[in-house]
Request: fold
Amino acid sequence: MTNLENQKENIQLYSYVGSQEIFDAIDLKFTGYKILKINDIVSWIEKTSQELINDSVIATFIINENHQLVINDRHSEHVQCAGGKNVISAGEISFLIEKKDKISINEISNQSTGYCPKPESWKYVEKVLSKIGIEYPNDFTLAFDFRLCTNCQAINLIKEDIFECQVCANNLDSEWNFD
Ligand SMILES: [Zn+2]
Reply:
């Protein structure tokens, strides 16, 4: 999909909202690894010598503006995975590798304080995963609601419906507010 098509279909793009310091430290020429088919996951694991724990490997992921899954080492920033660009969703993804040809997604979340995507971005993630032909959960297995504190600019994760900034105790907006 092109950006014009994203606009036409009212698909929300998320721009980077994390620290400038992190942004300045990344090499924008480098992005993560595009996963277009299941075998791309195997190649990524081998090329980057990923360590499997309980037959699983966790990665950082983003969905790029062209509706493609892009992954990178779990210790890297989402903005690096995206090459500094806007995303359609972002978070953490865990692949369960039972055999080389039997790979599924056992966990996936929208945990990205660099982009703070809404839980609702799942519907686009799901379409991308379905195109790859991999098994995946019905929804984010862990979904976060992010809010920006308008007083101290801290990025907050809403827990137990408490809309109070964890840094300055200011009241947080009821709606997503990073635009
Ligand atoms: Zn605050």
The longest helix spans residues 122-132. Residues 65 and 106 are 24 Å apart (CA to CA). The two ends are 22 Å apart (CA to CA). Helices lie at 3-8, 20-25, 38-47, 78-81, 122-132.
